[in-house]
Design a protein that fits this description.
Helix 6 (126-147) packs across helix 9 (178-206). Helices cover 80% and strands 0% of the residues. It has 282 residues and is an all-alpha fold. 40% of the residues are buried. The chain is built from twelve helices and no strands. The longest helix is centred in the middle third of the chain and has 30 residues, at 90-119. The chain has helices at residues 3-31, 33-50, 56-73, 76-84, 90-119, 126-147, 153-167, 170-173, 178-206, 212-232, 237-262, 277-281. The protein has two domains: 1-86; 90-282, Growth Hormone, Chain: A (Up-down Bundle), CATH 1.20.1250.20. It holds the Pfam family MFS_5. The chain crosses the membrane at residues 6-25, 60-83, 128-147, 156-174, 180-202, 214-232, 238-260. Keywords: Membrane, Transmembrane, Transmembrane helix.
Length: 282
Amino acid sequence: MSKHQIEILFIAGFGSSLIFGTFIGSIADKFGRRNNCLMYAILYGGACITKHFGNMPVLMIGRFLGGVATSILYSAFESWLIFEHNTSPIRFGAIRSAHYGGSMYTFVLEWTPALSRAAGDVGIPHGYIFAAFMVATMIGSSVFKLLQQHERPESFMRYVLLLAAVCLSMPIVAPDNLALVFGGFLVFEMCCGIFWPSMGCLRGTYVSEETRSTTLNLFRIPLNLIVIFILWQNFAMISIFKFCVFFLFAASIAQHALFLRTEHTPRHQKLPITVTDEDENM
């Protein structure tokens, strides 16, 4: 299967998420987040079954199911969790989420060719590299716990987004330096580990409970458009990373705007969801 065919499969997934995401979100708000989460399990289970076939139409169906399921994954579960814990600026959050998410999902497709180019004729161990990325993400989640004890996410996420932009600039400034490219990717994954819980806290603060699932899927519309645009054009790898860096800088600017809007708001209560050592040991 060629790289462009893989890109087409990615486009199918993000396209189905773009088209059906808002509709799926409204189902969760009207008929319950629990039922929507059960629907996710069925849809994603079907998507996984298609991975056992080497037929392009079957794989396209799987990507379609996976795209719809992803819309549920990134909206209904979080809405359900925040609702159970009982706990304008939204446009800045939407801009930041779209630009960061677009860069991150584009990175998912491009890290392999970037590292392969940096490694030259030497094959890269994809499994070990992916495992290293997951460890870096877990480290980032732990770093988030430390940061939120001293600063609000509105503040420290400005620097995290800037750092992420610098990390993804490595394939641009030093495309043949394996250590720099791989190190930059590891730090970027750590930034992802900080980003996700930060976004959960911010959405729990600013997004209305009554329409939370629908709003979160609306956030994903520009994200899906960004990824589809980049992949559909079949840009060169360096050009794709330039787009990613630009989007991350734009996300940092949006985050700074959110910070300026809320910096005088007293931190009179805890964020909607906090992680304690007791929770980790359960």
